[in-house]
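Form 7-S
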Amino acid sequence: MSANSAGEFPIKIYLLTQNRLLREVVVRLFQKRRGVTLVGVSHEGAEALDELAVTLCDVLLLDSLKTLRAVRQRAETAECLRKIKVLLFGMEMDSDSFFQALRMGACGYLLNDASSTEIVEAVRGIAQGEAICSPRLCKSLFEYVSNKTLLHSGKVERRGRPANDLIRRKRKLMPPVATGTTNKETTASLQVAEFTVNNRHRSQAISKRISVTQRRV
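Output:
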């Protein structure tokens, strides 16, 4: 169990948002809370990234996918940034944006109607290894995974069906062909085209000739 999950040390938060009013509100919000501490506040992306690279931080609070994208790009060359857990807040109810945030490694996604209590609890939860999102977006995530699973299952079934059908049809042809039944009699009993039976006879004849040739050699 980590120190934060055990509650021994305060959760270190860095706030990065260009909205001045939002910054001031969030700063006041966390100044009044136990167990959390603001280690940095910024409105400038490049400046914040430089500071984050040398600042111990548990949770990064963002309100923009653009900023998250910049953080992830910088994280490719700054290993310390990869360990920071990201919480997006003040976001729109948009499934596409939500999925983009997930692909870029966000651990939390709060909508713009989230209360101050929800934001604080989300920070605590993410610091303890939880994933946070709106119930409505959680439903979208379940539907997305379900649809992808069904689509994959359908593709597998379609790929396997033609081969299985062909094998079954060939097995039906084997007994009549082996007993010397004529092509027309076989097609009538199995309701298949005479062309199919002819092909079966031809394949067997070719196989026999190849076998004989190999034995002679």
